[in-house]
Amino acid sequence: MPSAIEDAKPFNAKRAALAATIGNMLEFYDFITYSFFAIQIGRTFFPSQSEYGSLMLSLATFGAGFVTRPIGGIVLGIYSDRIGRRPAMLLSFALMGAAILTISLTPSYSTIGLAAPIIVIVARTAQGFALGGEVGPTTAYLIEIAPPEHRGLVVAWQPASQEIAATAGALVGVILSKTMAPEMLESYGWRVAFLIGAICLPFGLWMRRTLPETIPQSKEGAAAHERTNHLSLAGRHIGVIALALMILASGTISTYVTQYMTTYAQNTLHVTPTLAFTVSLVGNGLQIAGALFGGWLADRLGRKPIMVWPQLAVLVLTYPTFLWIVHAPGALSLLVGFGVLSIIGSLPFTAFYATFTEALPQNIRGGVFATVYAVAIASFGGTAQLVVTWLLHVTGNPLAPAWYLLLAAVVGLVAMSLMPETAPVKKRQGQA
């Protein structure tokens, strides 16, 4: 099946991958930064008589961004399959930019009253719609521009770009917490963090406008994509889709509980904001390396070994790590403990991204990946931080996050062990 990039000369795959993932990185920076400043945002827009009530309302608004992600995944994912990857990625990026500007510039509850939280909730749902339609088209685009022997590494830039965004958000948090008094951080410091991401929006739009298209541009190719019956084709891959949903549920719980560690370190372990942000900075930085290394390994050793063995290691190490952190909270335990879990835990999901995308036909790839991803994220990512906060509150046990992470790790391990092997290197070995 011909594609636009076959006719676009010269084509620079590295530049196209960079352009796609830069946009993805900027979108995730805006989305994830909210979780880093959940305490300050809660006090700004959701004043309450209790600190717990304010934080829960703030996290509920963070979760509202997940409600519309399945809708965005379906709408923009199918749009990317029928019209093109580039238009879908441009649209999601523009929506995200408008939402982040709205949140960062909305006056506080004390200034405009009930209108403030309403505006923020609407903006968060718009962000969720945009991000729901971002991951599927971007991942499909990366797999389509990559040489078969390097698909794992190229697709690795999808999760790596998310971790780059989280690392940038944590770095901004460290700098702001070090240079601002607590009342300044609460008053406008978090707005500065959001606006830093907004400054990059024009650059991201420009980069995405230069991307070559990978969907067939001939009349015959376009007609074939227009006639695609997503439900019928997806039904033939129901087993892989079900396993992917389980793996993504496991991964998103791990991701958003990890992002919650900034709040957990401050509220539960009572460490300084600077150390809390530093833990997130180090953990997310290590996950960048882990994601790329996992992609490199998956191209050479196959997808399944890189999914199963690191996931098993995470299952074994999670509870002892939390025991250490809770009984000796400090820089050493937090940085080493979460650092080890971060780098090992990031290995399996790069291999999974490549496996799931390779297992889907091109003409449903964007829509199915986006929908499954968004449903898993909405169901489990949007509730992860609420569940952990609730568990900590009702049990009073600082080990509560470990229980939730262990459950997620078991589900992910079972599903990963059942996924098919799609790596070209393994297929060549089988044919030999």
UniProtKB/TrEMBL annotation:
Note one Pfam family from the annotation. Answer: MFS_1
- Spell out the family assignment given in the record's similarity comment: Belongs to the major facilitator superfamily. Metabolite:H+ Symporter (MHS) family (TC 2.A.1.6) family.
- Kindly list the GO molecular function terms attached to this UniProt entry: symporter activity
Q: Which PROSITE patterns match?
A: MFS, SUGAR_TRANSPORT_1
Q: What membrane topology term does the record carry?
A: Multi-pass membrane protein
Q: Does the keyword Repressor apply?
A: no
- Show the InterPro entries listed in the entry: H+-coupled_symporters, MFS, MFS_dom, MFS_trans_sf, Sugar_transporter_CS
Q: Where in the cell is it found?
A: Cell membrane
Task: Note whether tRNA-binding occurs among the keywords.
Answer: no
PANTHER family assigned: ALPHA-KETOGLUTARATE PERMEASE, CITRATE-PROTON SYMPORTER
Record's protein name: Citrate:proton symporter
Q: Which GO terms describe its cellular component?
A: plasma membrane
Q: Which keywords belong to this entry? A: Cell membrane, Membrane, Symport, Transmembrane, Transmembrane helix, Transport
Spell out where the chain crosses the membrane: 55-76, 188-207, 237-257, 277-296, 308-326, 332-356, 368-390, 402-419
- Organism field: Bradyrhizobium centrolobii
Q: Which residues form the Major facilitator superfamily (MFS) profile domain?
A: 16-423
